[in-house]
Specification:
Layout lengths: L1 E8 L4 H14 L2 E12 L1 H16 L3 E5 L3 H9 L7 E3 L2 H9 L8
Parallel strand pairs: 1-2, 2-3, 3-4
Length: 107
């Protein structure tokens, strides 16, 4: 599943992101967040992403980001999370990699 996000990810929009990810996780174990059009990312949004990433990892799923540009998502690098989260340059690259990851739902 690809979720495309644009604009600011901040304290105002973080609850929407959390709800969107929660809904997506009910049917999908592999989620790719397309953040190529994100213009700002604050720590509240980062907390939502990290929480869902940890949950996905714990259940054998995967949450990855595509298109994260340092200029707009530098919080990822400042906190060191860019080294821990799975990041792809493009959505196509992410989709190709996710297609090769075993789905825990397949048993």
């Amino acid at each position: 599943m690809v979720i495309t996000i644009s604009g600011d990810l901040d304290i105002v929009t973080s609850p929407q992101l959390d709800e969107c990810l929660t809904q997506a996780e009910t049917d999908h174990s592999r989620i790719l967040l397309d953040v190529g059009d994100v213009s700002f990312l604050d720590t509240s949004a980062l907390a939502v992403i990290v929480g869902h990433w940890k949950q996905a990892e714990a259940t054998g799923g995967m949450l990855a980001l595509a298109g994260a540009r340092y200029r707009y998502t530098k919080t990822l690098w400042i906190t060191g999370l860019a080294d821990k989260l799975t990041l792809f340059d493009t959505v196509d690259e992410g989709l190709a990699a996710l297609a090769n990851v075993a789905d825990p739902a397949d048993g």
